[in-house]
């Protein structure tokens, strides 16, 4: 098996390590799918599909949040707190966003 070496800053490596630990894989295992997709000439830009899905999800959630805010600000506040806790548990919040 070939080996690839890249240099990244320490903060990025620490974030990769945290994310890999959260999902129970090594940093190499975490990165292999992205590298594989980047090498596939049929896939285009690596993040296109994920960005499009994320965009649709964010638009939908914005509409739902606006509706909930109008009906029950307390429910929206609790939902946002619950969402933040879930994102934190999955390692999807940066250090500056964590409590």
UniProtKB/TrEMBL annotation:
Domain Ribbon-helix-helix protein CopG per the UniProt entry, residue ranges: 3-38
Pfam families assigned to the protein according to its UniProt record, in alphabetical order: RHH_1
InterPro entries: CopG, Ribbon_hlx_hlx
Gene Ontology BP terms: regulation of DNA-templated transcription
Name of the protein this chain belongs to: CopG family transcriptional regulator
